[in-house]
Amino acid sequence: MSKSIKWAALISDFTDEQQETLFGASLSRLFAKLPLWISHPSNIGGFYGILVALALILPYRFGSEEHTGWASDWILHCALLMAACFFLGICSTLINSIFRRMPIAPPRSVLYPMPFLGLGLLSIDRTDILTIHPYISWLLILLPGPLYVHLSWAPRWRLLCMIEDGKNPFHNSLHQEFKTNNSQIISETDTEMESVIDDLVSSEE
User: Fold this and answer.
1) 132-148 residues labelled b (16+ CB within 10 A) or e (exposed)
2) Angle, to 10 degrees, between the axis of helix 134-142 and the axis of helix 70-99?
3) Of 118, 166, 177, 204, which has the highest C-beta tally within 10 A?
4) Residue 132 near residue 124 (C-beta atoms within 8 A)
5) Average of pLDDT values for 70-86?
6) What pLDDT band is residue 66 in, cutting at 50, 70 and 90?
């Protein structure tokens, strides 16, 4: 049985809200199509590090007075960046396996502009237009990827692994929903029975 057929059979009974929790928005849905060993949170974090490394070529190439030594600095810093994102992805996976929390949608309006803002500040600093503390630029560049992985993808990846193992990740929530609906039905039934008894008593009087 292929992965798509297997998953379709398992998630067919899920509600729209549960499927939204499971697959998320467009970016998470894209990652969900990959094999689970490729879409591991550490690999997604490392992939973010690669994208940032590619974007840093221009600031390092044209923002350095020593045009011959920029490549070694770029390779070193990008390797550290990718290793940090990879390690933070592993940490997010371990933390989520312990606390087992559900995915949280990251604040996109704040998260998405951060790498571009950090890249702009880094470019300004390296071209000596203004003196900006490098920690600010690197924090803005580094934070969005690991934060997305920690809040959204690592919990979602755990749910997908449960689906792959044939387990229902929403078992407790489904059970709670059933209990809530059942209590509502009982309450409505009791109310109807009380109204019928009141009608009978009034008619006898």
Assistant:
1) eeeeebbebbbebbbbb
2) 50
3) 118
4) yes
5) 88
6) low
Can you give the three-state secondary structure of the chain, one letter per residue? CCHHHHHHHHHCCCCHHHHHHHHCCHHHHHHHCCCCCCCCHHHHHHHHHHHHHHHCHHHHHHCCCCCCCHHHHHHHHHHHHHHHHHHHHHHHHHHHHHHCCCCCCCCHHHHCHHHHHHHHHHHHHHCCCCCCCHHHHHHHHHCHHHHHHHHHHHHHHHHHHHHHCCCCCCHHHHHHHHHHHHHHHHHHHHHHHHHHHHHHHHHHC
Closest by CA to 53, choosing from 111, 122, 7, 104, is 122
- The predicted model scores a pTM of 0.75
Q: Where are the domains of the chain?
A: 3-169, 171-205
The residue assigned the tokens 């019928």 is 196
AA identity, residue 197: I
